[in-house]
Protein backbone atom coordinates (compact mmCIF):
# COMPACT_ATOMS: atom_id res chain seq x y z
CA UNK A 1 0.00 0.00 0.00
CA UNK A 2 1.30 3.44 -0.88
CA UNK A 3 -0.13 6.95 -0.66
CA UNK A 4 -0.92 8.76 -3.92
CA UNK A 5 -1.96 12.37 -4.56
CA UNK A 6 -5.09 12.00 -6.69
CA UNK A 7 -7.00 14.72 -8.59
CA UNK A 8 -10.43 15.12 -6.97
CA UNK A 9 -11.74 18.15 -8.83
CA UNK A 10 -10.72 20.75 -11.40
CA UNK A 11 -11.91 24.14 -12.64
CA UNK A 12 -10.79 27.25 -14.47
CA UNK A 13 -11.61 30.88 -15.02
CA UNK A 14 -10.94 33.20 -17.93
CA UNK A 15 -11.54 36.97 -17.83
CA UNK A 16 -14.51 38.15 -19.92
CA UNK A 17 -12.55 40.29 -22.36
CA UNK A 18 -11.39 38.36 -25.43
CA UNK A 19 -8.80 40.03 -27.66
CA UNK A 20 -8.37 38.69 -31.20
CA UNK A 21 -5.04 38.96 -33.06
CA UNK A 22 -6.56 41.68 -35.29
CA UNK A 23 -6.58 44.02 -32.25
CA UNK A 24 -2.76 44.21 -32.45
CA UNK A 25 -2.75 45.03 -36.18
CA UNK A 26 -3.99 48.58 -35.47
CA UNK A 27 -1.27 49.19 -32.86
CA UNK A 28 1.87 47.40 -34.06
CA UNK A 29 3.68 46.29 -37.19
CA UNK A 30 2.24 42.76 -37.00
CA UNK A 31 -0.50 40.65 -38.53
CA UNK A 32 -2.96 37.93 -37.62
CA UNK A 33 -1.18 35.72 -40.20
CA UNK A 34 2.26 36.17 -38.54
CA UNK A 35 0.95 35.49 -35.03
CA UNK A 36 -1.00 32.38 -36.11
CA UNK A 37 1.81 30.98 -38.26
CA UNK A 38 4.62 31.54 -35.72
CA UNK A 39 2.76 30.77 -32.48
CA UNK A 40 -0.64 29.18 -33.22
CA UNK A 41 -2.32 31.87 -31.12
CA UNK A 42 -5.63 33.32 -32.41
CA UNK A 43 -6.98 35.09 -29.34
CA UNK A 44 -6.37 35.57 -25.62
CA UNK A 45 -8.26 36.88 -22.57
CA UNK A 46 -7.18 40.03 -20.74
CA UNK A 47 -8.25 40.87 -17.18
CA UNK A 48 -10.51 43.90 -16.65
CA UNK A 49 -9.16 47.03 -14.99
CA UNK A 50 -8.75 46.26 -11.29
CA UNK A 51 -9.14 42.51 -11.78
CA UNK A 52 -6.17 40.81 -10.09
CA UNK A 53 -4.43 37.44 -10.18
CA UNK A 54 -6.00 36.49 -6.82
CA UNK A 55 -9.46 37.33 -8.25
CA UNK A 56 -8.93 34.96 -11.19
CA UNK A 57 -7.44 32.34 -8.86
CA UNK A 58 -10.41 32.55 -6.49
CA UNK A 59 -12.91 31.91 -9.32
CA UNK A 60 -10.89 28.89 -10.50
CA UNK A 61 -10.50 27.59 -6.93
CA UNK A 62 -14.27 27.78 -6.32
CA UNK A 63 -14.90 25.84 -9.54
CA UNK A 64 -12.38 23.14 -8.51
CA UNK A 65 -13.87 22.85 -5.00
CA UNK A 66 -17.40 22.55 -6.47
CA UNK A 67 -16.19 19.87 -8.87
CA UNK A 68 -14.63 17.96 -5.96
CA UNK A 69 -17.76 18.40 -3.81
CA UNK A 70 -15.66 20.03 -1.08
CA UNK A 71 -15.83 23.22 0.97
CA UNK A 72 -12.91 25.60 1.58
CA UNK A 73 -12.43 24.36 5.14
CA UNK A 74 -11.99 20.79 3.88
CA UNK A 75 -8.68 21.92 2.38
CA UNK A 76 -5.39 21.80 4.33
CA UNK A 77 -3.32 24.04 2.05
CA UNK A 78 -3.32 26.31 -1.00
CA UNK A 79 -0.32 26.46 -3.32
CA UNK A 80 -0.62 29.21 -5.92
CA UNK A 81 1.85 29.22 -8.82
CA UNK A 82 2.20 32.72 -10.21
CA UNK A 83 4.75 35.28 -11.40
CA UNK A 84 2.19 38.08 -11.32
CA UNK A 85 0.95 38.25 -7.69
CA UNK A 86 -1.28 41.21 -6.77
CA UNK A 87 1.43 42.65 -4.51
CA UNK A 88 5.07 41.90 -3.67
CA UNK A 89 3.65 40.51 -0.43
CA UNK A 90 1.57 39.07 1.16
CA UNK A 91 1.18 36.10 -1.13
CA UNK A 92 -1.75 35.99 -3.54
CA UNK A 93 -2.46 32.56 -2.02
CA UNK A 94 -3.38 34.14 1.33
CA UNK A 95 -5.71 36.53 -0.54
CA UNK A 96 -7.41 33.52 -2.13
CA UNK A 97 -7.58 31.82 1.29
CA UNK A 98 -9.39 34.83 2.72
CA UNK A 99 -11.70 35.24 -0.32
CA UNK A 100 -12.72 31.57 -0.03
CA UNK A 101 -13.49 32.04 3.67
CA UNK A 102 -10.92 29.38 4.60
CA UNK A 103 -9.96 29.84 8.24
CA UNK A 104 -7.58 26.94 8.75
CA UNK A 105 -4.52 25.43 7.09
CA UNK A 106 -1.82 27.37 5.23
CA UNK A 107 -1.33 29.11 1.89
CA UNK A 108 1.70 30.23 -0.09
CA UNK A 109 2.80 31.32 -3.56
CA UNK A 110 5.36 29.49 -5.65
CA UNK A 111 7.23 31.11 -8.53
CA UNK A 112 8.82 29.16 -11.37
CA UNK A 113 7.33 31.25 -14.21
CA UNK A 114 5.81 29.05 -16.94
CA UNK A 115 6.98 25.89 -15.16
CA UNK A 116 5.23 27.08 -11.97
CA UNK A 117 2.34 24.65 -12.09
CA UNK A 118 4.69 21.67 -12.56
CA UNK A 119 6.70 22.83 -9.52
CA UNK A 120 3.46 23.37 -7.56
CA UNK A 121 2.17 19.88 -8.39
CA UNK A 122 5.51 18.44 -7.33
CA UNK A 123 5.46 20.37 -4.03
CA UNK A 124 1.85 19.43 -3.28
CA UNK A 125 2.61 15.78 -4.07
CA UNK A 126 5.59 15.78 -1.68
CA UNK A 127 3.49 17.34 1.09
CA UNK A 128 0.75 14.76 0.62
CA UNK A 129 3.20 11.83 0.50
CA UNK A 130 4.93 13.08 3.68
CA UNK A 131 1.61 13.40 5.50
CA UNK A 132 1.93 17.17 5.98
CA UNK A 133 -1.41 17.75 4.24
CA UNK A 134 -4.18 15.49 2.97
CA UNK A 135 -6.02 17.85 0.61
CA UNK A 136 -4.31 20.65 -1.31
CA UNK A 137 -5.75 23.22 -3.69
CA UNK A 138 -3.13 23.71 -6.41
CA UNK A 139 -3.70 26.82 -8.51
CA UNK A 140 -1.97 28.45 -11.47
CA UNK A 141 -3.08 32.05 -12.08
CA UNK A 142 -1.61 34.96 -14.00
CA UNK A 143 -2.28 38.47 -15.21
CA UNK A 144 0.63 38.76 -17.65
CA UNK A 145 -1.19 41.65 -19.37
CA UNK A 146 0.08 43.81 -16.46
CA UNK A 147 3.74 43.19 -17.34
CA UNK A 148 3.67 43.36 -21.14
CA UNK A 149 5.46 46.00 -23.20
CA UNK A 150 2.70 46.99 -25.64
CA UNK A 151 5.32 48.35 -28.04
CA UNK A 152 7.30 45.09 -28.23
CA UNK A 153 5.61 43.02 -30.95
CA UNK A 154 7.84 40.02 -30.19
CA UNK A 155 6.32 39.50 -26.73
CA UNK A 156 2.98 41.31 -26.22
CA UNK A 157 1.11 39.25 -28.84
CA UNK A 158 1.99 35.97 -27.12
CA UNK A 159 0.58 36.19 -23.59
CA UNK A 160 -2.85 36.10 -21.95
CA UNK A 161 -4.52 36.06 -18.52
CA UNK A 162 -6.35 33.22 -16.79
CA UNK A 163 -6.43 30.71 -13.95
CA UNK A 164 -6.88 27.00 -13.39
CA UNK A 165 -7.07 24.99 -10.18
CA UNK A 166 -7.28 21.42 -9.02
CA UNK A 167 -7.78 19.62 -5.72
CA UNK A 168 -5.24 16.92 -4.91
CA UNK A 169 -6.06 14.49 -2.11
CA UNK A 170 -4.33 11.56 -0.44
CA UNK A 171 -5.63 8.16 -1.49
CA UNK A 172 -4.30 4.64 -1.05
CA UNK A 173 -2.70 3.07 -4.10
CA UNK A 174 -1.10 -0.29 -4.84
CA UNK A 175 2.28 1.30 -5.62
CA UNK A 176 2.07 0.34 -9.32
CA UNK A 177 1.89 2.52 -12.46
CA UNK A 178 -1.80 1.56 -12.67
CA UNK A 179 -2.58 3.68 -9.59
CA UNK A 180 -4.52 6.89 -10.02
CA UNK A 181 -2.70 10.10 -9.01
CA UNK A 182 0.77 11.53 -9.45
CA UNK A 183 3.18 8.74 -10.42
CA UNK A 184 6.44 10.62 -11.05
CA UNK A 185 7.97 14.08 -11.31
CA UNK A 186 11.07 15.58 -12.96
CA UNK A 187 12.23 19.14 -12.13
CA UNK A 188 15.16 21.11 -13.58
CA UNK A 189 16.52 24.63 -13.74
CA UNK A 190 19.62 26.28 -15.20
CA UNK A 191 20.20 29.85 -14.03
CA UNK A 192 22.92 30.41 -16.65
CA UNK A 193 20.03 31.09 -19.05
CA UNK A 194 18.23 33.61 -16.89
CA UNK A 195 18.77 36.43 -19.44
CA UNK A 196 16.76 34.64 -22.14
CA UNK A 197 13.47 35.41 -20.45
CA UNK A 198 13.00 37.80 -17.55
CA UNK A 199 11.13 40.84 -16.22
CA UNK A 200 13.30 43.97 -16.07
CA UNK A 201 11.87 45.16 -12.74
CA UNK A 202 11.29 44.09 -9.16
CA UNK A 203 12.34 44.99 -5.64
CA UNK A 204 15.90 45.85 -6.77
CA UNK A 205 14.63 48.46 -9.26
CA UNK A 206 11.57 49.83 -7.47
CA UNK A 207 9.42 49.13 -10.54
CA UNK A 208 7.21 46.22 -11.57
CA UNK A 209 9.06 45.81 -14.87
CA UNK A 210 8.09 44.30 -18.23
CA UNK A 211 8.66 40.94 -19.93
CA UNK A 212 11.83 40.66 -22.04
CA UNK A 213 12.42 37.52 -24.09
CA UNK A 214 14.83 36.17 -26.69
CA UNK A 215 12.03 34.07 -28.15
CA UNK A 216 14.03 32.08 -30.68
CA UNK A 217 16.57 31.03 -27.98
CA UNK A 218 13.81 29.97 -25.58
CA UNK A 219 12.25 28.08 -28.49
CA UNK A 220 15.49 26.14 -29.09
CA UNK A 221 15.76 25.13 -25.41
CA UNK A 222 12.08 24.15 -25.31
CA UNK A 223 12.35 21.77 -28.26
CA UNK A 224 15.46 20.20 -26.75
CA UNK A 225 14.33 19.92 -23.12
CA UNK A 226 10.58 19.21 -23.01
CA UNK A 227 10.49 15.72 -24.55
CA UNK A 228 13.55 14.78 -22.47
CA UNK A 229 11.97 15.82 -19.14
CA UNK A 230 8.69 14.08 -20.06
CA UNK A 231 10.56 10.87 -20.90
CA UNK A 232 12.63 11.08 -17.67
CA UNK A 233 9.44 11.39 -15.60
CA UNK A 234 7.83 8.50 -17.51
CA UNK A 235 10.88 6.28 -16.93
CA UNK A 236 10.75 7.12 -13.20
CA UNK A 237 7.15 5.88 -13.18
CA UNK A 238 8.18 2.67 -14.98
CA UNK A 239 6.36 3.84 -18.13
CA UNK A 240 7.24 4.94 -21.65
CA UNK A 241 5.95 7.16 -24.47
CA UNK A 242 3.59 4.42 -25.76
CA UNK A 243 1.73 4.28 -22.43
CA UNK A 244 0.66 7.95 -22.59
CA UNK A 245 -2.98 8.70 -23.39
CA UNK A 246 -2.64 12.50 -23.37
CA UNK A 247 0.24 14.94 -23.47
CA UNK A 248 -0.91 18.12 -21.72
CA UNK A 249 1.84 20.62 -22.57
CA UNK A 250 2.46 24.17 -21.43
CA UNK A 251 0.66 26.26 -24.04
CA UNK A 252 3.29 28.70 -25.32
CA UNK A 253 3.59 27.93 -29.01
CA UNK A 254 1.93 25.33 -31.26
CA UNK A 255 5.27 24.67 -32.99
CA UNK A 256 6.90 23.76 -29.65
CA UNK A 257 3.90 21.54 -28.81
CA UNK A 258 4.14 19.78 -32.20
CA UNK A 259 7.93 19.43 -31.96
CA UNK A 260 7.69 17.84 -28.51
CA UNK A 261 4.94 15.43 -29.60
CA UNK A 262 7.03 14.44 -32.63
CA UNK A 263 10.08 13.70 -30.48
CA UNK A 264 7.87 11.56 -28.24
CA UNK A 265 6.47 9.82 -31.37
CA UNK A 266 2.98 10.83 -30.28
CA UNK A 267 0.28 11.92 -32.73
CA UNK A 268 -1.23 15.39 -32.27
CA UNK A 269 -4.75 13.95 -31.82
CA UNK A 270 -3.63 12.81 -28.33
CA UNK A 271 -2.30 16.22 -27.31
CA UNK A 272 -4.51 18.75 -25.48
CA UNK A 273 -4.15 22.09 -27.29
CA UNK A 274 -5.68 25.36 -26.07
CA UNK A 275 -2.99 27.84 -27.14
CA UNK A 276 -5.18 29.14 -29.98
CA UNK A 277 -7.78 30.44 -27.50
CA UNK A 278 -5.70 31.38 -24.44
CA UNK A 279 -2.23 32.38 -25.67
CA UNK A 280 0.57 31.77 -23.18
CA UNK A 281 -0.92 32.13 -19.68
CA UNK A 282 2.34 31.05 -18.01
CA UNK A 283 1.67 29.10 -14.78
CA UNK A 284 -2.07 29.00 -15.56
CA UNK A 285 -1.70 27.28 -18.91
CA UNK A 286 -1.47 23.66 -17.72
CA UNK A 287 -4.39 23.67 -15.26
CA UNK A 288 -6.42 25.57 -17.89
CA UNK A 289 -5.57 22.91 -20.49
CA UNK A 290 -6.38 20.09 -18.03
CA UNK A 291 -9.73 21.67 -17.17
CA UNK A 292 -10.67 22.41 -20.79
CA UNK A 293 -9.43 18.94 -21.88
CA UNK A 294 -11.64 17.31 -19.25
CA UNK A 295 -14.64 19.51 -20.22
CA UNK A 296 -14.19 18.62 -23.93
CA UNK A 297 -14.37 14.93 -22.98
CA UNK A 298 -10.74 14.30 -24.01
CA UNK A 299 -9.34 13.46 -20.55
CA UNK A 300 -11.16 10.61 -18.79
CA UNK A 301 -10.75 8.78 -15.50
CA UNK A 302 -7.91 6.27 -15.70
CA UNK A 303 -6.10 8.04 -18.59
CA UNK A 304 -2.31 8.38 -18.30
CA UNK A 305 -1.22 12.00 -18.69
CA UNK A 306 2.18 13.57 -19.01
CA UNK A 307 2.32 17.31 -18.54
CA UNK A 308 5.44 19.42 -19.19
CA UNK A 309 6.55 23.06 -19.19
CA UNK A 310 9.54 25.38 -19.57
CA UNK A 311 9.88 29.03 -18.67
CA UNK A 312 12.03 31.81 -17.28
CA UNK A 313 15.07 30.71 -15.28
CA UNK A 314 15.27 28.61 -17.31
CA UNK A 315 13.12 26.27 -15.23
CA UNK A 316 11.43 23.18 -16.67
CA UNK A 317 9.94 19.85 -15.71
CA UNK A 318 7.25 17.25 -16.14
CA UNK A 319 4.66 15.36 -14.10
CA UNK A 320 3.18 11.94 -14.93
CA UNK A 321 -0.25 11.32 -13.47
CA UNK A 322 -3.14 8.97 -13.93
CA UNK A 323 -6.47 10.87 -14.01
N1 LIG B 1 4.79 40.33 -35.91
C1 LIG B 1 5.57 40.37 -37.01
N2 LIG B 1 6.89 40.10 -36.98
C2 LIG B 1 7.43 39.80 -35.77
C3 LIG B 1 6.67 39.75 -34.59
C4 LIG B 1 5.30 40.05 -34.69
N3 LIG B 1 4.48 40.02 -33.61
N4 LIG B 1 7.49 39.44 -33.57
C5 LIG B 1 8.72 39.27 -34.08
N5 LIG B 1 8.69 39.49 -35.41
C6 LIG B 1 9.80 39.42 -36.37
C7 LIG B 1 11.14 39.60 -35.71
O1 LIG B 1 11.43 40.98 -35.53
C8 LIG B 1 12.06 38.94 -36.71
O2 LIG B 1 12.29 39.86 -37.75
P1 LIG B 1 13.76 39.98 -38.45
O3 LIG B 1 14.00 38.62 -39.04
O4 LIG B 1 13.57 41.06 -39.44
O5 LIG B 1 14.70 40.29 -37.32
C9 LIG B 1 11.21 37.80 -37.30
O6 LIG B 1 9.85 38.11 -36.94
C10 LIG B 1 11.58 36.42 -36.75
O7 LIG B 1 11.72 36.53 -35.31
P2 LIG B 1 12.03 35.27 -34.44
O8 LIG B 1 12.04 35.68 -33.00
O9 LIG B 1 13.25 34.56 -34.98
O10 LIG B 1 10.74 34.38 -34.75
P3 LIG B 1 10.38 32.93 -34.27
O11 LIG B 1 10.03 32.08 -35.42
O12 LIG B 1 11.39 32.38 -33.29
O13 LIG B 1 9.00 33.14 -33.47
C11 LIG B 1 8.29 33.32 -31.16
C12 LIG B 1 8.98 34.00 -32.36
C13 LIG B 1 6.84 33.11 -31.51
C14 LIG B 1 8.45 34.23 -29.96
C15 LIG B 1 8.97 31.97 -30.86
O14 LIG B 1 10.37 32.13 -30.86
C16 LIG B 1 8.57 31.38 -29.54
O15 LIG B 1 7.43 30.96 -29.33
N6 LIG B 1 9.50 31.26 -28.59
C17 LIG B 1 9.28 30.58 -27.34
C18 LIG B 1 8.50 31.38 -26.39
C19 LIG B 1 8.21 30.49 -25.20
O16 LIG B 1 8.08 29.29 -25.30
N7 LIG B 1 8.10 31.00 -24.06
C20 LIG B 1 7.83 30.05 -22.96
C21 LIG B 1 8.19 30.52 -21.76
S1 LIG B 1 7.34 32.00 -21.39
C22 LIG B 1 7.63 32.30 -19.71
O17 LIG B 1 8.35 31.60 -19.04
C23 LIG B 1 7.01 33.52 -19.17
Question: What would you note in describing this structure?
Answer:
The protein has 323 residues and is an alpha/beta fold. The protein folds into 2 domains: 2-173, Thiolase/Chalcone synthase (Peroxisomal Thiolase, Chain A, domain 1), CATH 3.40.47; 181-322, Thiolase/Chalcone synthase (Peroxisomal Thiolase, Chain A, domain 1), CATH 3.40.47.10. It has 10 helices and 13 strands. The strands form 4 sheets. Strands 1-7-6-4-5 form a 5-stranded mixed β-sheet, with helices on both faces. Strands 8-13-12-11 form a 4-stranded mixed β-sheet, with helices on both faces. Helix 3 (53-68) crosses helix 4 and helix 7 (215-236) runs parallel beside helix 8. The chain is globular, with a radius of gyration of 18 Å. Acetyl coenzyme *A (ACO) is lined by residues 30, 34-35, 38-39, 113-114, 153-154, 157-158, 197, 215-216, 218-219, 222, 252-253, 256, 280, 282, 311-312.
Q: Provide the low-confidence segments as ranges.
A: none
CATH homologous superfamily caption of the largest domain: Thiolase/Chalcone synthase
Which CATH first-tier class of the largest domain would you pick?
Answer: Alpha Beta
Averaged pLDDT: 97
- Count of helix runs: 10
The CATH topology of the largest domain: Peroxisomal Thiolase, Chain A, domain 1
Q: Strand fraction band?
A: 25-35%
Major beta sheet, strand line-up: 1-7-6-4-5
* Order of SSEs: EEHHEHEHEHEHEEEEHEHHHEE
Radius of gyration: 18 Å
Known CATH architecture of the largest domain: 3-Layer(aba) Sandwich
- Taking the alpha carbons of the first and last residues, their distance comes to 19 Å
Query: Biggest sheet: strands, sense, closure?
Result: 5 strands, mixed
Present as ligands are: acetyl coenzyme *A
What is the percent of helical residues?
25-40%
Shape label = globular
Tally the beta strands: 13
Number of domains: 2
Class based on secondary structure composition and strand pairing = alpha/beta
Amino acid sequence: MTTRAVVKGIGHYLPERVVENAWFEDRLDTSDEWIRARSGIERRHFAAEGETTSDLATHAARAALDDAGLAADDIDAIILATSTPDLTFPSAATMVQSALGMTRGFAFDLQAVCAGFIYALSTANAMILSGQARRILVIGAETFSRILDWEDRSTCVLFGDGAGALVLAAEDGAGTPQDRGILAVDLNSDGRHRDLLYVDGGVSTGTTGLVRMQGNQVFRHAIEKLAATAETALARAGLQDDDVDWIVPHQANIRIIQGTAKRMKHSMDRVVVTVQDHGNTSAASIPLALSVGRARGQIKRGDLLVTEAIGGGLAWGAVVLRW
